[in-house]
Write a structure and sequence with these properties.
13 helices; mainly alpha; 59% helix
Length: 345
């Protein structure tokens, strides 16, 4: 038994961190271990897929190791995630430069210059000309409106802050302290070596990954856990709503065949009227939410099951597959069928 538990600990190295992340994203405080393991397995497979595809892009530009820009290129269609990643990397670079300039021991203070250079990360595929820097300097002004990416990033940040405020509105002091500690959960902060071993990066990369690449993968792993948890909660909400509506409407289930005769329909209507008349004299029973006698009280929350996560992952994969070319997308002329690429979430 101890040997098996040790093996699970080595295989699932981020159970505690994923538990804390899922709690922040709306899951119960103690989720099912099977659900945590499934989320970690999906997250690891997604990270390996990201590294594999990023390595292919790096080889096309004659580089042995992928760069953070390769990962950003893979998720370029998710603009909100790209904006969050660029903001994360830029602020990380600002803190690093401020720490180096202060000698590493002083408190970091971000001035206006640091804030102005926050969004200075450039991507290789962005259009650049000899006039780009001149136009940028000429267009700098305090009253200049934010571009579309900054507006979208700002709106996404406000939406997440509203969700966090709604989740913590009725928390006690101790609960809020625990919630704040869970918000600090990370895959790579002071755990870079564990993350490289967990994702088995040495088997997929020729050289040791850089710190920027590791931090980028850790950020994307955090986003993957969030996507799975939020989608799983939505699937659970839909299933519970469907169960409550069907159980609260007994007339929606009919034992009569659809092509029954008129006489049988009259008999069924008569039996229904007799049943309603007999039920009027019966004592009223206390029912749960949605009219279901055996439903849990509204305050009791059930954890996500592996079926919820699996269904959420399947739906996200289906959406990615529909976004790509349908029909003959596996046909490559005389090459025959090739492996269908796993959708990145």
């Amino acid at each position: 038994m101890s040997k098996m538990s040790k093996q699970n600990k080595d295989t699932y190295a981020y159970s505690q961190e994923i538990t804390q992340m899922m709690f922040v994203f709306g899951e119960v405080q103690d989720p099912m271990p099977e659900t945590i393991h499934l989320v970690e397995d999906i997250c690891r497979s997604q990270i390996i897929e990201l590294v594999t595809q990023a390595r292919t892009l790096a080889l096309r530009r004659n580089s042995r190791s992928p760069a953070p820009e390769d990962l950003i290129f893979l998720i370029r269609y998710d603009r909100a995630k790209v904006n969050r990643l660029r903001t994360y990397l830029s602020w990380k670079d600002v803190r690093k430069n401020a720490k180096d300039s202060e000698g590493g021991g002083a408190e970091i203070e971000l001035d206006e210059g640091a804030a102005a250079s926050k969004m200075s990360i450039k991507l290789p595929w962005e259009l650049t000309t000899i006039y780009s820097e001149h136009l940028k300097k000429a267009g700098d002004s305090d009253d200049e409106e934010m571009d579309e990416d900054e507006v979208e990033a700002h709106e996404d940040s406000l939406r997440r802050l509203r969700e966090a405020d709604e989740a913590t509105r009725r928390m006690s002091r101790e609960e809020y302290v625990h919630y704040s500690e869970c918000r600090q959960a990370s895959f790579t902060f002071r755990k870079a070596k564990r993350f490289r071993e967990w994702a088995n990066l040495s088997a997929h990369l020729d050289v040791k990954p850089s710190d920027e690449l590791t931090d980028t993968l850790g950020f994307l792993a955090f986003e993957i856990v969030r996507s799975l948890c939020v989608a799983g909660l939505e699937v659970k909400r839909i299933l519970e709503r469907g169960d409550s509506s069907s159980s609260s409407d007994p007339s929606s289930y009919s034992s009569d065949p659809p092509n029954s005769s008129p006489s049988s329909g009259d008999n069924s209507a008569k039996r229904k009227a007799e049943h309603e008349g007999a039920a009027e004299g019966a004592p009223e029973q206390k029912k749960g939410p949605g009219g279901n006698l055996f439903a849990l009280p509204s305050t009791a929350r059930t954890p996500l099951t592996p079926a919820h996560i699996q269904e959420a992952f399947t739906r996200m994969q289906r959406e990615r597959a529909n976004a790509r070319l349908a029909g003959m997308r596996n046909f490559r002329g005389t090459a025959g069928l090739v492996r269908t690429r796993v959708g990145l979430i």
